[in-house]
Amino acid sequence: MPQITIRSFARFRQLFGEMNTVSVPEGTSVLGALLAFAKTQKDGMDELFAGGKLGSHIILMYNRERIDSDDAKTIHTADGDEIVIYPPVSGG
Amino acid sequence: MVLALQKEDIDIGALISASRTNNDGAQIVFIGCVRDDGNMDALEIEAFVPVAEKDLADIAAEAMERFSLNSVDIVHRYGRLALGETIVVILVGAGHRPEAYEGSRFIIEKLKEKVPIWKQELSGNARGEWVH
C-alpha cells in the first residue's frame, strides 16, 4: 500500500513526533490519510478531529503547498506524498 | 536583500549599512524581541525553515511592489532565545517615510499571519505554553 509521510510541527510535533508514516489504500484522500494517522496516535482523534471533521485550527500542507480542509477531501494521495500539519503560527 | 532564518544573533548595523542606497529617504527597522510574560526565562522558536524562507521571499516581493520600497531585509531567528534577545529584524528602505512605515507594518503582520514559525515559553528545562 502507498506510504504517506505525516510531518508535524509545534504542539503536534510534541504530541505525535516530527515524522510518521501511514499506509493507506491507493487513492485515499488527504483527509482519509489524516484520519488513518490520527487513529494510530494516542489522542490523535481528539487533537485533530472534532465530530468527524478536521479541526478548524489545523493548517495543512500537501507536498509543500498549503491546502484547506475542502481540498483535503478531494486530493488523492500517492506513494511518497507528504502531508504537513501544524497549529496557527506565532512568529515575529 | 537579506531574507533568512538563522540561530545566530542578528547584526542590525551591518544590515542597515548594506541595504542603504542613495535612493533611500527613510529606513525603518522593526525589532521583535523576547518579552518576559512571567513564569518564563526563554522562548523556544521552531520554524519549518524551507517553507518559511519561501514565505519571507513572497512577503518581501509583495511589500516591495505594494509600497514602492527600495529594499526589504527580513531575518528571523529560531532555537532557544533568552529574555531580551532579538527574535526578528525587518528593515525596509524607501524614498519617503509613509511607504517605509506602511511597508514595515505590512511585513510584520503578514509574517505573524502566515509564516510557519512557532514560539513556546520555557522556564528552566520545563516547557510551557505555545504562544498564540
TrEMBL record, chain B:
Provide one Gene Ontology biological process annotation.
Mo-molybdopterin cofactor biosynthetic process
Name the chain's protein: Molybdopterin synthase subunit MoaE
Q: Which residues form a coiled coil?
A: none
Q: Could you tell me which Pfam families the record lists for this protein?
A: MoaE (PF02391)
